[in-house]
């Protein structure tokens, strides 16, 4: 019998919501209960395209807004062959940001509509589950200062949050909102429950496309 495919699980949210910490904990917990799992993150700064993005985020270079949007998308597309291979091998992928960050961050800039922003990612593997780590801007501020990178201001993050709220209205995506104001273990337990459900469901379903 062919092996059952892994699930594509995405964590989204504004900065300081705890996505990276929770992705790592989820992968560890899944592995400990015998479910093969690996973490990925976007942007993946290790590739040639990723290095262009990284320099832009660190404000070491300037790029036209449409251009950088397409680079972020290309950075996801370049990973698709390896993502599909791993999923087919039964490995669950836990992904720190995906196409939804792409649409939310660019459409938060003046002159961009959400519809245009989503187009380059149409056809990417569709996540079986997208968890949005919800944290109010005031709670995020209590978690410390933003860094120096582009986009790390509370005004921009609030605009991004509103765009995510629009994206979450799409019923064709399995969105789950997680209260990220709980302690780390509380958030993890919620995430683990949703993930185990998604892994079980994905086993009997074909991988979809965005
Ligand atoms: P991170 O490494 O998770 O801190 O992400 C880097 C920054 O890039 C963060 O501010 C979110 C933003 N970002 C992530 N994906 C995209 C994307 O596809 N498009 C745009 N414009 N920004 C993105």
Automatic annotation (TrEMBL):
<dbReference type="GO" id="GO:0005524">
    <property type="term" value="F:ATP binding"/>
</dbReference>
<dbReference type="Pfam" id="PF02223">
    <property type="entry name" value="Thymidylate_kin"/>
</dbReference>
<feature type="domain" description="Thymidylate kinase-like">
    <location>
        <begin position="11"/>
        <end position="191"/>
    </location>
</feature>
<dbReference type="InterPro" id="IPR018094">
    <property type="entry name" value="Thymidylate_kinase"/>
</dbReference>
<dbReference type="GO" id="GO:0005739">
    <property type="term" value="C:mitochondrion"/>
</dbReference>
<keyword id="KW-0547">Nucleotide-binding</keyword>
<keyword id="KW-0808">Transferase</keyword>
<comment type="similarity">
    <text>Belongs to the thymidylate kinase family.</text>
</comment>
<dbReference type="GO" id="GO:0006227">
    <property type="term" value="P:dUDP biosynthetic process"/>
</dbReference>
<dbReference type="GO" id="GO:0004798">
    <property type="term" value="F:dTMP kinase activity"/>
</dbReference>
<dbReference type="GO" id="GO:0006233">
    <property type="term" value="P:dTDP biosynthetic process"/>
</dbReference>
<comment type="pathway">
    <text>Pyrimidine metabolism; dTTP biosynthesis.</text>
</comment>
<dbReference type="InterPro" id="IPR039430">
    <property type="entry name" value="Thymidylate_kin-like_dom"/>
</dbReference>
<dbReference type="GO" id="GO:0005829">
    <property type="term" value="C:cytosol"/>
</dbReference>
<protein>
    <recommendedName>
        <fullName>Thymidylate kinase</fullName>
        <ecNumber>2.7.4.9</ecNumber>
    </recommendedName>
</protein>
<dbReference type="InterPro" id="IPR027417">
    <property type="entry name" value="P-loop_NTPase"/>
</dbReference>
<keyword id="KW-0418">Kinase</keyword>
<comment type="function">
    <text>Catalyzes the phosphorylation of thymidine monophosphate (dTMP) to thymidine diphosphate (dTDP), the immediate precursor for the DNA building block dTTP, with ATP as the preferred phosphoryl donor in the presence of Mg(2+).</text>
</comment>
<keyword id="KW-0545">Nucleotide biosynthesis</keyword>
<dbReference type="GO" id="GO:0004550">
    <property type="term" value="F:nucleoside diphosphate kinase activity"/>
</dbReference>
<dbReference type="GO" id="GO:0006235">
    <property type="term" value="P:dTTP biosynthetic process"/>
</dbReference>
<dbReference type="GO" id="GO:0005634">
    <property type="term" value="C:nucleus"/>
</dbReference>
<keyword id="KW-0067">ATP-binding</keyword>
<dbReference type="InterPro" id="IPR018095">
    <property type="entry name" value="Thymidylate_kin_CS"/>
</dbReference>
């Amino acid at each position: 019998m062919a092996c059952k495919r892994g699930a594509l699980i995405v964590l989204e949210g504004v900065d300081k919501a705890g996505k990276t910490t929770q992705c790592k904990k989820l992968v560890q917990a899944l592995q400990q209960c015998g479910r093969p799992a690996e973490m990925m993150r976007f942007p993946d700064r290790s590739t040639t395209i990723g290095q262009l993005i990284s320099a832009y985020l660190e404000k070491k270079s300037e790029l036209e807004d449409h251009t950088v949007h397409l680079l972020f998308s290309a950075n996801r597309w370049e990973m698709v062959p390896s993502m599909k291979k791993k999923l087919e091998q039964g490995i669950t992928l836990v992904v720190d940001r995906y196409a939804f960050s792409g649409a939310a961050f660019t459409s938060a800039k003046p002159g961009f509509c959400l519809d245009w922003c989503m187009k380059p990612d149409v056809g990417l593997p569709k996540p079986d589950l997208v968890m949005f780590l919800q944290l109010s801007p005031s709670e995020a501020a209590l978690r410390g200062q933003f860094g120096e990178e582009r986009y790390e201001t509370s005004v921009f993050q609030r605009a991004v949050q509103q765009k995510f709220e629009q994206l979450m209205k799409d019923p064709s995506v399995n969105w789950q909102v997680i209260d990220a104001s709980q302690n780390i273990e509380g958030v993890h337990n919620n995430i683990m429950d949703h993930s185990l459900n998604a892994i079980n469901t994905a086993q009997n379903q074909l991988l979809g496309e965005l």
